[in-house]
């Protein structure tokens, strides 16, 4: 987080509160989220996109992708900062409702929404449902008919652009479950199917090309293809398509060497692409939206652990690696195991020795892939009782957490202006026992 710093006494503090104090009050492991950091990133995206798209005569909306991390407090923060909310399940919708997010500010995603989820979404008056299959077009239309309303929908398409971190593929294999494919002519059929149902109002197209992307070229290629497709379809079918959604996926710095994209630069480039296409076709510019998740909540979150065992291991002929075990692991951060994700860490209760040693920070789970930080040079005097803080764990960590090995999930503590409060309490073993049947 932007407010993190090491005090003179060696303790790391965030938003003016020492992590040693957090550990004492709330225990470890704990997720800590810096409210000001989340709010300022939300604001930066909103302002950058609003400004760039106002300059081409339209409005831009930023939908926070709640899958990255959602609690009712976070839903309120982003709402207060002028963002909307993307939910992808009935559970996320329930949190949005609890937070009081207005229905019209909610977009609903998912490649296999259940009828009950669609009913809930329509009953709450969501502003858009992004449809992902022919079955779903019928399901949403049938539900809208039952509710006696017209459902606003977008069609999710795959454009053959796929981006992974530092590169993108312009003719990606479309062998994945999301969206209608441009390659096999499904998009025209999907449009026809939507337009044939008077209970549906087609707003436009949606595309999402991947996540943790550092390269602007993939976004630009996708935007170019998406707006071209939208204009062509609008013309062919003689309809007006007033909205366009460019998805999320902006990468964040997990390691000090990572260089994320600048939202303002992205906004300007994307606005330029949309403007040019609309100008050439001589049509009005649609209202544009994006759906960042990770880049809003990721950098402002950290995980705090307590060190237990420290074990030197002869890793190879010329390498002794220190294995530092902490009191959490793959149940609170599945990303190293799932995606070989790399993280950065530091001692949090003291600076530690200047002498560093090759270290692997590992969890407490009964599995050798239970890695927190794969490779790091860490103070060689790290010992039992020290606190370790892992950076940039605000996105897809609590969201992907499990109770593997019956380890209860850690709390989420928000810090702001020297104060700490519980967003999600720590799970207890009693919570786990309570799930058991008679
Ligand atoms: N919109 C749609 C339709 C999405 O599928 C996603 C992410 C987003 C927006 C937000 O993407 P973001 O800005 O957060 O990259 N668990 C993986 C990431 C999965 C992303 C799924 N979809 C991870 O931990 O890296």
TrEMBL record:
Pfam families: Orn_Arg_deC_N, Orn_DAP_Arg_deC. One of its GO terms (molecular function) is diaminopimelate decarboxylase activity. The keyword Coiled coil does not apply. Gene3D superfamilies: Alanine racemase (3.20.20.10), Lyase, Ornithine Decarboxylase, Chain A, domain 1 (2.40.37.10). Keywords: Amino-acid biosynthesis, Decarboxylase, Lyase, Lysine biosynthesis, Pyridoxal phosphate. Residues 299-394 form the Orn/DAP/Arg decarboxylase 2 C-terminal domain. InterPro entries: Ala_racemase/Decarboxylase_C (IPR009006), DAP_deCOOHase_LysA (IPR002986), De-COase2_C (IPR022643), De-COase2_CS (IPR022657), De-COase2_N (IPR022644), De-COase2_pyr-phos_BS (IPR022653), Orn/DAP/Arg_de-COase (IPR000183), PLP-binding_barrel (IPR029066). Its EC number is 4.1.1.20. The active site is at 366 (proton donor). CDD domains: PLPDE_III_DapDC (cd06828). It catalyses: meso-2,6-diaminopimelate + H(+) = L-lysine + CO2. It comes from the Bacteria. Residues 37-297 form the Orn/DAP/Arg decarboxylase 2 N-terminal domain. GO terms for biological process: lysine biosynthetic process via diaminopimelate. Homodimer. HAMAP family: LysA. NCBIfam families: lysA. Belongs to the Orn/Lys/Arg decarboxylase class-II family. LysA subfamily. This is Diaminopimelate decarboxylase. It comes from Dermacoccus nishinomiyaensis.
């Amino acid at each position: 987080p932007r407010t993190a710093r090491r005090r003179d006494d060696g303790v790391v503090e965030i938003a003016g509160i020492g992590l040693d104090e957090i550990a004492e009050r709330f225990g470890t492991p704990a997720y800590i989220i810096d409210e000001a950091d989340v709010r300022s990133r939300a604001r930066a995206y909103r302002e950058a996109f609003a400004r760039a798209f106002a300059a081409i005569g339209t409005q831009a909306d930023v939908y926070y992708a709640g899958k990255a991390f959602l609690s009712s407090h976070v839903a309120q923060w982003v709402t207060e900062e002028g963002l909307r909310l993307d939910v992808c399940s009935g559970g996320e919708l329930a949190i949005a409702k609890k937070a009081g997010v207005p229905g019209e500010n909610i977009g609903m995603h998912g490649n296999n929404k259940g009828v009950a989820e669609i009913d809930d979404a329509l009953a709450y008056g969501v502003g858009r449902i992004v449809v992902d299959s022919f079955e779903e077009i019928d399901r949403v239309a049938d539900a809208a008919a039952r509710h006696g309303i017209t459902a606003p929908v977008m069609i999710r398409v795959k454009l053959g652009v796929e981006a992974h971190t530092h590169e993108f593929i312009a003719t990606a294999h479309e062998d994945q479950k999301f969206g209608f494919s441009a390659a096999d002519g499904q998009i025209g059929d999907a449009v026809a199917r939507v337009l044939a149902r008077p209970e549906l109002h087609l707003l436009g197209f949606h595309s999402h090309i991947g996540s943790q992307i550092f390269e602007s070229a993939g976004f630009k290629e996708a935007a170019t293809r998406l707006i071209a497709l939208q204009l062509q379809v609008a013309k062919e079918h003689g309809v007006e398509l007033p909205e366009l959604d460019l998805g999320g996926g902006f990468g964040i710095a997990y390691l000090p060497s990572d260089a994320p994209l600048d939202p303002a630069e992205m906004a300007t480039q994307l606005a330029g692409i949309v403007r040019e296409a609309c100008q050439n076709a001589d049509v009005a510019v649609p209202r544009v939206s994006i759906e960042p998740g990770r880049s809003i909540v990721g950098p402002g979150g950290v995980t705090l652990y307590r060190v237990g065992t420290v074990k030197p291991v002869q890793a190879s002929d010329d390498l002794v690696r220190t294995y530092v075990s902490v009191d959490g692991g793959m149940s609170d951060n599945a990303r190293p195991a799932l995606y070989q994700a790399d993280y950065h860490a530091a001692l949090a209760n003291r600076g530690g020795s200047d002498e560093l040693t090759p270290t692997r920070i590992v969890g407490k789970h009964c599995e050798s892939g239970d890695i927190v930080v794969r490779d790091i040079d860490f103070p060689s005097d790290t010992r039992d009782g020290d606190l370790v803080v892992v950076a940039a764990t605000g996105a897809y960590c609590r969201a992907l957490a499990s109770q593997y090995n019956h380890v209860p999930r850690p709390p989420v503590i928000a810090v702001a202006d020297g104060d700490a409060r519980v967003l999600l309490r720590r799970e207890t073993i009693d919570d786990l026992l309570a799930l058991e049947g008679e």
